[in-house]
């Protein structure tokens, strides 16, 4: 009796043990499965149902070659856009096939079961160059990003891979630079630009382009608004150690900020504002504070601090430009444009250590603002000359009712005195040479005096007085 009971107990234990063994075996197979749309078994998303080991190996090799040749693999995320070379991934086809065969093999004791459908990923190894590239990007959560890359490459996926970012709130621990300026211009599309730029993450080594960040809304804002926002952004960047790649002056002294600090954005002329982040990742914040625009940069605490200075200012005086027109009366003139001075300025950036005496100064730009020249329009007509009578030449000593010396134009007399050979004439004959006689050089009055008797002279009435 006891033997029967013992036999039953042993049999029951064996059945329970077999049940748990079969259950655990099924669990192991399920663990190896991956999501796939195929009804049959797959390795790395490639169907290999009813194929032997050699055929499976060949099919996987061809699929991997096609994937490497035709796939443009991209790692995407906020502030992240990296193209990954497919040659960074090394596939172990043989190990993948062996894993599949082990997972799909039916145990002898489960002879009544149908063949298992198994979906497993390809076994891969990542090139150290890619690991270094990911580690150098301080925005990425390295472990989780690599995990995502492996998961998608192992099934030969062609869709963009999601980059897993670090906690960005840590980047906002310190405001490293800012600019605040009242909006004093007629802005169009300002809110759209703010939305496009706000919360942008600028990673280490990233090239920031105003064009690229606002390309989708380029038809919404006007040039004046773009110049205003870009100028404040440029002013903010000058307070950091970011490298300025491209910046253009507006060419005129702006109504906001200082000369030399403004920036010009022109899509048609290919004028952009570009800079490279050479330090820790930073978060750009752009917002409106009442009637002012605020541009801020947040990042991890830095050991250095930056500032800019505008020096060596030189005033460029305007010139006066004369233009002539026959539409104005003789001697008349009109002011067309009032002049204003120009400027020459030099912008310096100073990077200094917060704790030590270290300081580095560099010239960022030298800007020239042309003066506005004064323009005067004058008449091209020559004014008529009015003869000037010299009272000293109106003496009538001989009482004949006529001046003793002919009076011509004063300017002509002066000219004649300075140059005897220079004679000018007009219709009146007023500029004729007053010298008479045969080259004696004497006037009529002198001839009359020479003809008087010796000792005689003229009195005030013009009478000849001869002493007895």
UniProtKB/TrEMBL annotation:
Residues 407-428 have a biased composition (Low complexity). Residues 301-382 form the G5 domain. It comes from the Bacteria. Residues 396-468 are annotated as: Disordered. InterPro entries: G5_dom, Glycopeptide_resist_protein, Vancomycin_resist_VanW. Keywords: Signal. Coiled coil: none annotated. The keyword Cytoplasm does not apply. Pfam families: G5 (PF07501), VanW (PF04294). PANTHER family: EXPORTED PROTEIN (PTHR35788:SF1), EXPORTED PROTEIN-RELATED (PTHR35788). This is G5 domain-containing protein. It comes from Psychrobacillus lasiicapitis. The lineage of its organism: Bacteria, Bacillati, Bacillota, Bacilli, Bacillales.
């Amino acid at each position: 009796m006891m033997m029967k009971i013992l036999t039953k107990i042993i049999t029951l234990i064996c059945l329970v043990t077999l049940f748990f063994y079969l259950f655990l075996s099924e669990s192991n197979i399920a663990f190896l499965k991956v999501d796939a749309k195929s009804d049959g078994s797959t390795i790395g998303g490639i169907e290999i149902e009813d194929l032997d080991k050699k055929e499976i190996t060949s099919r996987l090799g061809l699929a991997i070659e096609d994937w490497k040749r035709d796939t443009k693999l991209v790692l995407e995320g906020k502030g992240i856009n990296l193209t990954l070379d497919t040659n960074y991934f090394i596939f172990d086809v043989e190990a993948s096939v062996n894993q599949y065969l082990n997972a799909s093999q039916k145990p002898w004791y489960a002879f009544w079961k149908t063949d298992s459908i198994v979906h497993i990923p390809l076994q891969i190894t990542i090139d150290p160059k890619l690991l270094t590239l990911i580690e150098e990007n301080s925005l990425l959560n390295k472990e989780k990003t690599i995990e995502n890359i492996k998961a998608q490459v192992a099934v030969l996926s062609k869709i963009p891979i999601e980059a897993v970012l670090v906690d960005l709130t840590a980047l906002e621990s310190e405001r490293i630079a800012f600019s605040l300026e009242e909006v004093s211009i007629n802005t169009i599309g300002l809110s759209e630009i703010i939305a496009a730029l706000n919360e942008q993450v600028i990673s280490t080594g990233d090239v920031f382009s105003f064009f690229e960040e606002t390309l989708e809304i380029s038809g919404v804002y006007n040039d004046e608004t773009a110049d205003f926002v870009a100028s404040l952004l440029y002013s903010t960047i000058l307070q950091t150690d970011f490298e300025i790649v491209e910046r253009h002056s507006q060419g005129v002294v702006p109504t906001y900020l200082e000369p030399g600090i403004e920036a010009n954005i022109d899509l048609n002329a290919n004028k952009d504002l570009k800079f490279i982040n050479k330090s820790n990742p930073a978060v750009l914040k752009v917002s409106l504070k009442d009637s002012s625009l605020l541009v801020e940069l947040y990042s991890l605490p830095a050991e250095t601090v930056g500032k800019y200075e505008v020096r060596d200012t030189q005033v460029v005086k305007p010139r006066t430009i004369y233009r002539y027109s026959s539409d104005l009366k003789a001697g008349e003139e009109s002011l067309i444009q009032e002049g204003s001075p120009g400027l020459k300025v030099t912008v310096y950036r100073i990077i200094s250590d917060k704790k030590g005496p270290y300081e580095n100064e560099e010239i960022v730009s030298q800007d020239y603002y042309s003066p506005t020249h004064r323009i005067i329009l004058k008449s091209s007509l020559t004014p008529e000359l009015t003869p000037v009578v010299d009272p000293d030449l109106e003496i009538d000593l001989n009482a004949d009712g006529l001046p003793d010396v002919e009076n011509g134009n004063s300017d002509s007399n002066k000219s004649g005195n300075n140059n005897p050979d220079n004679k000018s004439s007009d219709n009146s004959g007023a500029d004729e040479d007053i010298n008479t006689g045969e080259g004696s050089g004497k006037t009529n009055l002198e001839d009359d005096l020479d003809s008087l008797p010796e000792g005689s002279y003229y009195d005030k009435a013009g009478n000849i007085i001869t002493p007895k």
